[in-house]
């Protein structure tokens, strides 16, 4: 995915409304750039105390299948039965902040959704976004809670002045 020379974008998706907005924005941006879009869903095994009865331990393979089905449902709800040909998915095991930072290596952009954007609303960002802003290997775009359709950048790379832009764009640290 990362090595054929064609630009690619990475979007982190969970089951949140904010990540679905980020997915829609990322699809439009990938279409405009002629880029591939990698949709990443992190899958962390539920941590249960080692002394808990075995019946309470969720089988990780079952959990991964459920998350993969949830991702498919999100994609079909967002795009309908015909998914964009430039869209690829990965369900990867690990903490979301590590998985997304690792997948950003070689990417042109990492897109994340947030229910709040601190520069606009004054609320703190979550740990996944905070970690990705400091550890990503590429620029990070955070899609905020308001009308994501109005967020497409102008040709000069800045948000259009006729739209309210609640996204936060930051350069990744490269390591």
Per DSSP, the total helix count is 5
Mean pLDDT: 79
Q: What is the makeup of the main sheet?
A: 6 strands, mixed
* Broad structural category: alpha/beta
Query: Strands of the largest sheet, in order across it?
Result: 3-2-1-4-5-6
Mass-distribution shape: globular
Number of strands: 6
What oligomerization state is this entry in?
A: single chain
Distance between the termini: 20 Å
CATH fold node name: Rossmann fold
Relative strand content: 15-25%
State the name of the first-level CATH class: Alpha Beta
Rg over CA atoms, rounded to whole Å, is: 17 Å
Description of the structure:
The chain has 175 residues and is an alpha/beta fold. Helices cover 33% and strands 18% of the residues. The chain is built from 5 helices and 6 strands; from the N terminus they run βαβαβαβααββ. It has a 6-stranded mixed β-sheet with strand order 3-2-1-4-5-6, with helices on both faces. The longest helix is centred in the middle third of the chain and has 20 residues, at 60-79. Residues 147-167 have low confidence and may be disordered.
């Amino acid at each position: 995915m990362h090595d054929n020379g064609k630009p690619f974008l990475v979007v982190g998706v969970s089951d949140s409304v904010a990540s679905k907005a980020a997915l829609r924005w990322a699809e439009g941006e990938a279409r405009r750039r002629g880029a591939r879009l990698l949709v990443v869903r992190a899958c962390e095994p539920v941590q249960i105390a080692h002394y808990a009865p075995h019946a309470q331990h969720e089988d990780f393979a079952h959990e991964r299948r459920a998350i993969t089905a949830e991702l498919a449902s999100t994609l079909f709800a967002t795009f309908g039965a015909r998914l964009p040909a430039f869209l690829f998915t990965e369900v990867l095991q690990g903490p979301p902040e590590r998985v997304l930072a690792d997948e950003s290596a070689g990417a042109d952009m990492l897109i994340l959704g947030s229910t709040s954007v601190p520069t606009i609303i004054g609320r703190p960002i979550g740990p996944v976004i905070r970690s990705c802003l400091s550890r990503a290997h590429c620029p990070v775009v955070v899609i905020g809670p308001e009308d994501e359709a109005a967020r497409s950048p102008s040709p000069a790379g800045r948000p259009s002045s006729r739209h309210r832009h609640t996204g936060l764009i930051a350069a990744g640290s490269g390591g």
